[in-house]
Every structure is written in C-alpha cells, then in structure tokens.
Automatic annotation (TrEMBL):
<keyword id="KW-0472">Membrane</keyword>
<keyword id="KW-1003">Cell membrane</keyword>
<dbReference type="InterPro" id="IPR002293">
    <property type="entry name" value="AA/rel_permease1"/>
</dbReference>
<feature type="transmembrane region" description="Helical">
    <location>
        <begin position="384"/>
        <end position="402"/>
    </location>
</feature>
<feature type="transmembrane region" description="Helical">
    <location>
        <begin position="128"/>
        <end position="145"/>
    </location>
</feature>
<protein>
    <submittedName>
        <fullName>Amino acid transporter</fullName>
    </submittedName>
</protein>
<dbReference type="InterPro" id="IPR050367">
    <property type="entry name" value="APC_superfamily"/>
</dbReference>
<dbReference type="Pfam" id="PF13520">
    <property type="entry name" value="AA_permease_2"/>
</dbReference>
<feature type="transmembrane region" description="Helical">
    <location>
        <begin position="157"/>
        <end position="176"/>
    </location>
</feature>
<feature type="transmembrane region" description="Helical">
    <location>
        <begin position="90"/>
        <end position="116"/>
    </location>
</feature>
<keyword id="KW-1133">Transmembrane helix</keyword>
<feature type="transmembrane region" description="Helical">
    <location>
        <begin position="282"/>
        <end position="307"/>
    </location>
</feature>
<feature type="transmembrane region" description="Helical">
    <location>
        <begin position="328"/>
        <end position="347"/>
    </location>
</feature>
<keyword id="KW-0812">Transmembrane</keyword>
<feature type="transmembrane region" description="Helical">
    <location>
        <begin position="20"/>
        <end position="41"/>
    </location>
</feature>
<feature type="transmembrane region" description="Helical">
    <location>
        <begin position="196"/>
        <end position="216"/>
    </location>
</feature>
<feature type="transmembrane region" description="Helical">
    <location>
        <begin position="47"/>
        <end position="69"/>
    </location>
</feature>
Length: 443
C-alpha cells in the first residue's frame, strides 16, 4: 500500500469521521435538490423522487471504488494518487489533470450561481462585483486551515437541513400525511423510463462532491483509510435518503401545478407552502449559505490535488509549499483561487456552458478511478469479485451512458483540456524525478 507522506513536513492529520461527514455533505449540499427541483420534475414526468433514488444508486458504484482505493493509497492527491500508484506516473498525471478540470471549475460555477442569485435580489450590482467579494471571503476562511473550514461547513449543513426540513414539514401540513407520501413521485404505470433516466442524468450532478472527501487523506487522524472510506460511503447514503424523502413530499406538492419557469419552481413551491415571504428568503439563503457551502470545500480540495502534484514534481514544486503557521498549501490555494476568479468572470453570463465542462472533468476522472480498482486488484489474493470487478465495470457503463448524452461543445472543450495535459506531460511532467512518495504497495 502506498502512503503518500512524502518527505519532511506534511499536512497535519486532525480530522475525524464527523469532520469528514460534514465536509462531504457541505460539498454535496443537503438542499441541492431544491435548485433543480423543477427541471428534474419536468424531465422525469413528475417521478422526481424515483430519479433521485436512481441517481444515488448510480453514484454508489463510484463511491465504492473511492472507498476501496483510499485504503490502498493514502495521500492528498485523491484520484491523482490512486492512478499513479495503480497505473504509473503518466496515468497518475492525466488522472490528476482531468479531475483538476472538475475541481478548478466547480468553485467558478458556484461563484457564478451565487452572483446570479444575488443579482436577481439586487439587480443594480454587477455580477463581477459579487464574484470578487464572495471569492475573497472563501479564500480568507480557507487560509486559516481546514478546521476553521469544518466549523463553517457544520453551520452551513445544519442550516440547509433545517430549511429543507421546514419546507418538507410545511408540505406535509399543507397536503396532509397521506397525500404528502402518495406514490406519484415514485411510481407510475406505465413507467416512463426515458423520462426517468433523463431526470436521473440531472440528479447525478447533485451527488457530485462525495469524491472530494478523498482529498483529505493526509488531513485525517486515522491514516489507515478505513475512516475515510466509511465517510465517503456514509455521505452518499445520507444524501440519497435525504434527497429521496424531501423530493417525495415536495414532488407531491407540485402535482397538478403549473410553473412559469421550471428553473425557479422551488421558489414558487416555497411561496405556496410558507407564504410570499419565503420566496426572497430562500433566494438569499441559496445565494449565500448554499453557495459558500460548496465553494469553501471545493477550494480546499483543488488546492490539495495541486499540492500533491507539486510535491511529486508533476507541476511546479512551489505548489507544494505549506504555510508555516496554518499548515495550508497556500501557494496552490492562491493559484487556484486566481484561476477560479478569471474563469468565473469570463463565464459569468454562460452558466450552462460552464456546468457542462465541470461534468466532463468529473466523469472522465471517475472512469479512470474504476480502471484503477480493476488493475490494482487484478492479480491480488485479496481480490473481491463484487468490489473489485463487478462494481467498477458497472460504474464504467453508467459513466459511458452519461457521457454519450453530453453536448458536442462540452466534449470538444473537454478533449481540448485533455490534449493540453498531454502537451504538458511531454514537455515537463514526465521528466520529473520519481518522488519519495512513490512507495511500493502490495497487491
């Protein structure tokens, strides 16, 4: 097994199981279904709860592969570290490069979402002003270390759960218990599978984020990987149950309703269940609390991937520098923050386009993860047919199905990022000396 401790001082292992749960739930965001409530409801022909349950099942295969690999390769590089150990330096670099596309762009995407929401509430302020102000705040919080981020995550997660529970409770009171849990959002006869799968393809995006828990391998007190693996699976399980129950009730509240805009349907539902005051209140909550919840942990995750790659000589070594007092990879954090700022400002009026690029980076990274599991255990006496063969193969099939439904521009630009990575490897990364963290691992 590979332990990416590296040489000299490294990240301090302080986080426990519940810190990791808070981090993962913060990144997924317990209120995530609210933002896509109308879109999924429309695509799935009202079967919104079924779509979310299927989305959680689809991601379970990827979560299982992450849980398997964090016990084998324990460093801050996540997919980069897994691929480097199982497939070699080139695959490791490309895995890190592709997942960077996801990690680098998600903060930008979140900043744009927050700016759009705040722009609707205060239309006189340009989106660029909101992006700069919000990004500055998240950088300050993360600068002072991972534990300060964990505290903010806990407050944010609890707040999101409270808001969602409030809406669900109001839905039960408004509809009555029997109608609130009628089978309409879960089952229909005949079942419109094409619509349900279309809804599931959107729902899957709400689950993205559990994977970033693996970037905290060197911040975790238990360095065996067991706690980290349990946390990854627990985060996905909790999110699936919570998403399924909340969309079941809210989906029933939407039956027979007409919405002028499916993208803003959750504001209409909130107003219907709680009164007119709930619409602007939910908009403020989404713009501030939910946005910060996603931006803060993603800024942490991308900095740690770049830190690991810098430590191994795959990118300039300056990215591996840790702050002497706060023990944070400050150079990597500032560099990725600057890039997020540029991307957010450039695409502040092209939210959909930015989202498609995020999806490409995540899904191609997940595909490589499944290959890592299959190869790592192919000759191992510890090989488990279900965990190490069936699960990654099914996971690859799910990812392939989702990728085929992506737009041509997303695939073209995603492949452009891939080509850029190949060029960097040929010019610099492959000539780096083998790092001390490349320890032999047993299979």
């Amino acid at each position: 097994m590979a332990d990416g401790a590296g040489t000299g001082a490294g990240l301090q292992g302080r986080l426990g199981f519940w810190h990791l749960i808070g981090y993962g739930l913060a990144l997924i965001a317990p209120s995530a279904p609210l933002n896509t409530l109308g879109v999924v409801w429309g695509k799935a022909h009202g079967l919104i709860a079924l779509s979310y349950l299927l989305g959680g099942l689809c991601m379970a295969f990827t979560a299982t592969s992450y849980a398997v690999m964090v016990r084998e390769v324990r460093n801050a590089g996540s997919l980069y570290g897994f691929a480097r150990a199982a497939l070699g330096p080139f695959a490791g670099f490309m895995g890190g490069w592709m997942i960077l596309l996801d990690y680098l762009l998600i903060p930008s995407l979140v900043y744009v979402i927050m700016a759009v929401a705040l722009g609707q509430l205060m239309p006189g302020v340009d989106r660029a002003v909101w992006i700069v102000a919000l990004l500055a705040f998240t950088t300050v919080v993360n600068w002072f270390g991972i534990r300060s981020t964990s505290v903010f995550n806990a407050v944010s997660v609890i707040s999101q759960i409270a808001i969602t529970v409030l809406l669900v409770g109001a839905g039960i009171v408004f509809l009555g218990p029997e109608q609130a849990f009628s089978p309409a959002p879960v089952w229909a006869d005949p079942l419109p599978w094409r619509g349900v799968l279309a809804g599931t393809s959107v729902c899957v995006l709400s689950f993205l984020g559990f994977d970033a828990v693996s970037t905290l391998a060197e911040d975790t007190a238990d360095r065996s990987g067991r706690t980290l693996g349990r946390a990854i699976l627990a985060v996905l399980a909790l999110a699936t149950v919570f998403f399924g129950l909340s969309t079941w009730v809210l989906g029933n509240a939407m039956v027979g309703r007409h919405f002028a805009s499916l993208e803003a349907a959750h504001y209409d539902v909130a107003g219907m269940l709680l009164g007119g005051w709930a619409r602007p209140a939910l908009a403020w909550f989404t713009a501030l609390m939910v946005g910060f919840t996603n931006a803060l942990p993603m800024q942490v995750g991308v900095a740690r991937v770049l830190y690991a790659m810098g430590r191994d000589g795959q990118v300039p070594g300056a990215f591996a520098r840790l702050h002497p007092r706060h023990n944070t990879p400050w150079v990597a954090m500032l560099a990725t923050t600057g890039l997020s700022l540029v991307v957010a400002l450039a695409f502040r009026d092209a939210l959909d386009f930015l989202a498609t690029l995020v999806n490409f980076g995540a899904l191609t990274g997940f595909a490589l993860l499944h290959v890592c599991v299959f190869v790592h255990f192919r000759k191992s006496a510890r090989r488990n047919l279900a965990l190490h063969v069936v699960s990654p193969v099914v996971g690859l099939a799910v990812i392939a199905a989702i990728l085929t439904g992506m737009g041509a521009w997303a695939l073209l630009l995603g492949c452009g990022w891939l080509v850029l990575g190949l060029a960097w490897w040929q010019g610099a990364a492959r000539h780096a000396p083998p790092p001390a963290s490349d320890l032999a691992y047993s299979v």
